[in-house]
């Protein structure tokens, strides 16, 4: 495939136009694609159901509701996932149901319900439903989503090359966009024909172990495609029998219950840990219907990637879908630290100073939030300490106080070797006083010495990364990224959720330059943040010192854990969903650095040494500076998740300014710290606390526009379905405002989205999993907000979900919002 791309470029005379750009952001190999389920839907209209109102427990409500939804599915059942939880701030219970067919998990069959006071506020549904009377065993064996994806990439290359203007010196070519397409060819399509080739290979087809032969063959085939090393791919192809014989499969069977077998595979080439796997179904669109494919689901941790892959269980072993959990940049009373322990101090760029170009370093205190980090940033129980696993302790619950950048939320250290080792990597030790005060004065050197010069200041770098990461943890905690929601902590203080998953933060990671990435496995496994040096200037610039990049990366962990539930890391893998994963990171980094006096903001400008930053445009209210609209996603170069993401971030930026114009701006996004009894004062941050008719406190509402949009964005992530579209995420934010404020910002939110083409009349036709389709901008807002909006471009309103159902805005939503509990609205 890469040869096809190179040949096409050469034929068009574009070799010079695609010459290496020294300021380009380096890209690691990553696979990520899969089908869009045409029947997947998201409904934001509250469902008042007579049988539901008799139930008090939200899980009972969910059971009644789900069983009503699936009563006509033959052979179908479901399980309520253990990562379901109640948000203590909003009172909304987020419940996740996973589908099973004849005892086997349908890995992309999800229903997420948002329940409060016996009412299903909203829900997403992607359960498999046999069509046209087909039985469960209408299984897709010949459908090849991988080949479909690659054919679409070919069409996109041809489309872009047809637009080349050879009369222009630069041929009118977007070099970065073509470069990204070339990488997509190289990474995703080089081995598209491998399943058929390997099925005919005698060595490959005759695995010694009949019980595990299909597992190892499918996994080895995936590793051939996934490894970034061409030499390793060639070696595996040339010696398939050797690698198959060396892999060892260990199955785990259960004494009771109806469980499909799970297993681990050891000695997997290019994997850094044993591969986890299980048997499952996934859904595959096949013409006018959707069928099931029986797959091996693998979790493959590699040096630069952490894949969740679905590979056909039967030969030929086709890749059905693959998500890379690594994303690039571009309460009980908790124990209190001993009173004689003084907090740490750090010489850093203080919170709010985005990078060295906009401020100086200063001494900052360990300003931890006692609600988010009860032990502070440098302490954790020995029982949760990875460095204390082999110690024999009389009291494993005792607290270990550290003097390095090692704590309950973050383990920060150097990783010059660029490997996965981290337990014993170097960290600065500030001694008992915990004064992390280190020099940072890099000077210009020769190119050969530039790396060594940057490494001289590793203590300052690690300190900055630790400081910024802990503040991000505490900030997101206060807006609802708590233990039950899947946050990253070693010890959860008895508050629920899975623990032992603090962020492993690599400073000056030696595996590359000019990038950053974050790996987000499910709740209970450590997230990994890797920050790089940027060789875009002399002296080298250190990405650890640009807060926006760190915040962007940590926000991948936030959005991945909140969307679809803490135990599901496969919801933001590709297309619009994957793009929004990037967009939320850019938006949150931008709103955090913003000031009361408005200005535009680029992303990654300092590290990359480019004024406009590493995105196509700075984030701006001026549509000349940033012209991005929903329709922009149809342009060449907007297949990649970063380009899609910056359109979403631009929309959120415009929406945020609508709320700021209405509610004003608060200088500090951190809510007031809790009182000694654990209650949170309103201060000048929240509105005066309100109570319902039973005397129960309602959720606290941030009173300013910039704090309110952060709350709504995080609440919207919790409400939206797995694999959301732009429409789903928009509707979830509007639904979050309905829950939090009663919908008082309904019109401002709609107007903000409509300003950038995502109004009620926006739509998409032929949307593909990787971002294709034809989009129509919509400037209309719902009728009750339309006093001064342009006339509709399309007389038929639509919610963009292409289903033609009755939940289309605006009329049905208006009826729901103005109904009473005595107006029963059925879900069908």
General description of the model:
Residues 83-127 form the FTP domain. Its EC number is 3.4.24.-. Keywords: Hydrolase, Metal-binding, Metalloprotease, Protease, Secreted, Signal, Zinc, Zymogen. One of its GO terms (biological process) is proteolysis. Its cofactor is Zn(2+). With 828 residues, this protein is of the alpha+beta class. It folds into 4 domains: 2-35 and 140-324, no CATH class; 41-125, Nuclear Transport Factor 2, Chain: A; 345-570, Elastase, domain 1 (Roll); 630-817, Neutral Protease Domain 2 (Neutral Protease, domain 2). The chain contains 20 helices and 26 strands. The strands form 7 sheets. Strands 1, 2, 3, 4, 5 and 6 form a 6-stranded antiparallel beta sheet that branches. Strands 7-8-9-10-11-12 form a 6-stranded antiparallel beta sheet, covered by helices on one side. A 5-stranded mixed beta sheet has the order 13-21-22-20-18, covered by helices on one side. A hairpin with an 8-residue loop joins strand 21 and strand 22 (528-531). The protein is globular. The chain starts with a helix and ends in an 11-residue tail after the last helix.
